Amino acid sequence: MHELLNFQNEKLLQQALTHRSYVNENPGEKHNERLEFLGDALLTFISGEYLYTRYPEIAEDEMTRRRSALVDEKQLAKFAIEVGLDFKMRLGRGAIQDGGFQSPNLLSSAFESVVGAYYLDCDRNIEKIRPIIADLFNSVPQAIMEIRSNVDSKNRFQEWVQAKFGTLLPKYITERIGGQDHAPEYLAQVFVGEQVYGYGKARGKKEAEKQAAENALSNLTKQGLI
Questions:
Q1: Is 57 labelled as part of a ligand binding site?
Q2: How far is CA 39 from CA 58, 162, 190, in A?
Q3: Start-to-end C-alpha separation, the chain
Q4: CA distance readout (Å), 177 to 100, 106, 123, 174, 211
Q5: 62 is in an annotated binding site
Q6: What number is the average pLDDT over the span 57-61?
Q7: Residue-wise DSSP of the chain
Q8: For the whole model, what pTM was predicted?
Q9: For the stretch 66-100, what's the b/e string if a residue is b when 16 or more beta carbons lie within 10 angstroms of its beta carbon?
Q10: Three-class SS string for 106-130?
Q11: Residue 113 annotated as binding?
């Protein structure tokens, strides 16, 4: 069993593995969405610190791209499988029938939830979780990280915005617009100031925001601005 699944409080691990679709069919259970939020914040911090320490020679913009590559949906889904979360996830019947155990969206969300739960299980001592996550980051080939960092649409759009507007940053507003609990649909809008630059729709929030950035870049290209 992977070290990330070695919990003192087994109920906390169980909650981290519980998707909302399971709770809908089993009232009284707790879903993992708050833990997912916490895990996402921890991974953002740890990945930033990891890159800052490991690559002292690279600039801030490249670190930003590489961080996105380390914590994007596809990579987190791979970590989830590596840790052994895939068939441990507690999903509703509909989610299982739709291939939920292989869904990058559900796998990445479960991984974030387990990271958040492990942090709480360790009495919020980040030193306990940092080396575990660093080992997973170390397993990502540098060449793969560089390829992903070069194609990250959110970072490319942010670079254009900063070159155009200085310190102003893109802002993403993402809302659920439909779908089932195990397969929600999200609409993302990316703003610069008060202006909408792009839209994206997908089953996951991160993917919807990525699509919005790609739409923004496409619009800029059509206008001859990039």
A1: no
A2: 26, 28, 24
A3: 49
A4: 20, 18, 37, 9, 15
A5: no
A6: 79
A7: --GGG--S-HHHHHHHTB-HHHHHHSTT---SHHHHHHHHHHHHHHHHHHHHHH-TTS-HHHHHHHHHHHSSHHHHHHHHHHHT-GGG-B--HHHHHTTGGG-HHHHHHHHHHHHHHHHHHTTT-HHHHHHHHHHHHHTS-HHHHHHHHHH-HHHHHHHHHHHHHTT---EEEEEEEEEETTEEEEEEEEEETTEEEEEEEESSHHHHHHHHHHHHHHHHHHTT--
A8: 0.72
A9: bbbbbbbbebbbbbbeebebbebbbbbeebeebeb
A10: HHHHHHHHHHHHHHHHCCCCHHHHH
A11: no
pLDDT at 68 over 90: no
Q: How many percent of the chain have pLDDT more than 70?
A: 96
Q: Angle between the 153-165 and 205-222 helix axes, to the nearest 10 degrees?
A: 50
Say if residue 127's pLDDT is above 90: yes
* Residue carrying the six token digits 């939830």: 113
Indicate which residues carry an active-site annotation: 40, 112
- Strand pairing category for 195-202 and 171-180: unpaired
Separation between Cα atoms, residue 176 and residue 172, nearest integer Å: 13
> What is the C-alpha to C-alpha distance for residues 134 and 187, in angstroms, rounded to an integer?
32
Q: Supply 104's token pair.
A: 């990058």
111: exposed, middle or buried (Cβ count in 10 Å: 0-12, 13-18, 19+): buried
Res. 54 pLDDT band, cuts 50 70 90: very high
